[in-house]
Design brief:
By secondary structure, the protein is of the alpha/beta class. Among the domains are: 128 residues, Aspartate Aminotransferase, domain 1, CATH 3.90.1150; 106 residues, Rhodanese-like domain (Oxidized Rhodanese, domain 1, 3-Layer(aba) Sandwich). The protein is built from 17 helices and 18 strands. The strands form 5 sheets. It has a 6-stranded mixed β-sheet with strand order 13-18-17-14-16-15, with helices on one face. A 4-stranded parallel β-sheet has the order 4-3-5-6, with helices on both faces. It starts with a strand and ends in a 9-residue tail after the last strand.
């Protein structure tokens, strides 16, 4: 679709025009290797140095280090490896170190799994232990107080990627100073950049990872802040780049683009928190008016103003996501890294939210440069989704087709019956009597408001009720049918069901509406 309303900024963001221009300039005019001493290399080095200097100012790095990485995951790996190597070295030296690697219960899985991995590889003997959160999603400070003397490394977030909940870092720092002076501390700042004030050198935070693509830079670039006194072990060694802290020729296109974003942030081109909170209130009001009984899963008073996490009673998040997607609204059920998993969010479960409510959760997030016109468009689409949701019966099951169904039908492929979006016009010209059939659920079809397409009427025949409607589909056995859905998965299953029932002149749109223009 060409007119999507993108409300999944916590997952990723489009590149800022200035970032695209900076990346192109880095690839064409400043393409030298920044480690080279000739003119081309020096021009690239100037971009690298300027971006690092800007990053230091934006995050308040002081005399700490700023290391460019391939993204937050590498930065997290580097921080955890550095901390655990230091723990192991202290153990071997006979120092008294804690036996707990404490990780917030609502942390991104990249942190918890990284801790478990490197702890096992290094054999520290420490235990990875979750730090519980309360019903508002904030860490239980009384639990941290009790565990603090045993903590070797603490991992928390500045702001949660699913709920937007902002961590009380000042309270945690005071507690660590009082009860765990030996503990190292990593704070995931991925969602904080551009949304929260950062002066890292004024804190005792040892490591802070960042990701470029969460804030208008391209994927494949990030950075790691390391406090001056913090122990450090490189994850990647070899060429001595990044002052020997991270080997490998720098991703200059990504770094230049990231630099353009950081410069825009430093110049105050992002909207202030008060304005963003006003935009969030408008979205929240529209959501509540559109979906009766809607619950917000995190309090607004200590959450990012760009994030809303909500549940609609009795509606699975899969159905809600499909309805929003049908209306051209991009939202998610939580972390994009866990989107393929059917289990409810571990973040919401850790907050004590019951399984049913967690299973209906949807995350809506927008970028800190969002305009009032953009929010107007988003509210209009949300209202359309609500009208479709309230006005149409929900299917008995909103879950995607089971693996068994896929094995019985879709895994047979679509050889000769799959129409690529690029060839759709030619197909319709060759089949003037072809009937277009939307196999998404009726509520999705209503949200899409797609009564006609390519000048032809569109019939709604949901996959979930296709067996009961086979007779209607087969009333003209020779009439060509072109089935479509969002991704092409459901239409492929429907195609094989119809062919098994005797309708041989049936096709489906390969890749679905996601790849088609309308």
């Amino acid at each position: 679709m060409t007119n999507e309303v993108y409300l999944d900024a916590n997952a990723t963001s489009p590149a800022l025009p200035a970032a695209v221009a900076a990346a192109v300039d880095a690839m064409q005019a400043r393409f030298g290797n920044p480690s080279s001493s000739h003119g081309a290399g020096l021009r690239a080095r100037a971009v690298l140095d300027a971006t690092r200097a800007c990053a230091r100012r934006v995050i308040g790095a002081g005399d700490g280090s700023v290391i460019f990485t391939s993204g937050a995951t590498e930065a997290i790996q580097t921080a955890v490896l550095s901390a655990l190597c230091a723990v192991r070295q202290r153990q071997l030296g006979g120092e008294a170190v804690g036996d707990l690697l404490l990780v917030g219960a609502t942390e991104h899985k990249a942190v918890a799994e990284c801790l478990a991995h490197w702890n096992n590889i290094l054999g520290t003997g420490c235990t990875v232990h979750p730090l519980a959160v309360d019903a508002d999603g904030r860490h239980r400070l009384e639990d941290l107080t009790a565990l603090a003397p045993r903590v070797a490394l603490l991992c928390t977030m500045a702001a949660n990627n699913e709920t937007g909940v902002v961590t009380d870092l000042a309270a945690i720092e005071a507690l660590l100073d009082a009860h765990a002076p030996q503990a190292l501390w990593m704070v995931d700042c991925v969602q904080a950049l551009g949304k929260l004030p950062l002066q890292l050198a004024r804190t005792r935070i040892d490591y802070a990872p960042f990701s470029g693509h969460k804030l208008y830079a391209p994927k494949g670039v990030g950075m790691l802040y390391v406090r001056k006194q913090a122990p450090f072990t490189p994850l990647m060694v070899g060429g001595g780049q990044e002052s020997g802290l991270r080997a490998g020729t720098e991703n200059m296109a990504g770094i230049a683009a990231f630099g353009a974003v950081l410069a825009a942030l430093e110049e105050g081109l992002f909207r202030p928190a008060a304005e963003l909170a006003r935009l969030r209130e408008r979205l929240a009001h529209t959501l509540q008016a559109s979906f009766p009984g809607l619950h917000f899963n995190a309090p607004f008073d200590h959450s990012l103003p760009t994030t809303l996490n909500f549940s609609v009673p009795g509606a699975a998040s899969t159905l809600l996501l499909n309805v929003f997607d049908a209306a051209g609204v991009c939202v998610s059920g939580g972390s994009a890294c866990s989107a393929a998993k059917a289990a409810p969010s571990h973040v919401l479960l850790a907050m004590g939210i019951d399984h049913a409510r967690a299973a209906s959760a949807v995350r809506l997030s927008f970028s800190p440069t969002a305009s009032d016109a953009f929010i107007d468009a988003a509210c209009a689409r949300i209202a359309r989704c609500g009208a479709a949701f309230v006005g149409h019966p929900q299917p008995a099951s909103a879950a995607p087709p089971t693996k068994t169904a896929a094995a019985d039908h879709g895994d047979r492929g679509d050889h000769g019956v799959g129409i690529d979006p690029a060839g759709l016009g030619a197909f319709l010209a060759q089949h003037p009597a072809a009937r277009l059939v939307d196999v998404r659920e009726a509520v999705e079809h209503a949200a899409a408001a797609i009564g006609s397409w390519h000048g032809r009427a569109v019939a709604s025949v949901p996959l979930s009720s296709l067996p009961q409607q086979l007779a209607a589909c087969l009333d003209q056995p020779e009439q060509p049918l072109l089935l479509f859905c969002r991704s092409g998965n459901r239409s492929l299953l429907a195609l094989h069901m119809l062919r098994d029932a005797g309708h041989k002149n049936v096709y489906h749109l390969r890749g679905g509406l996601a790849l088609a223009q309308r």
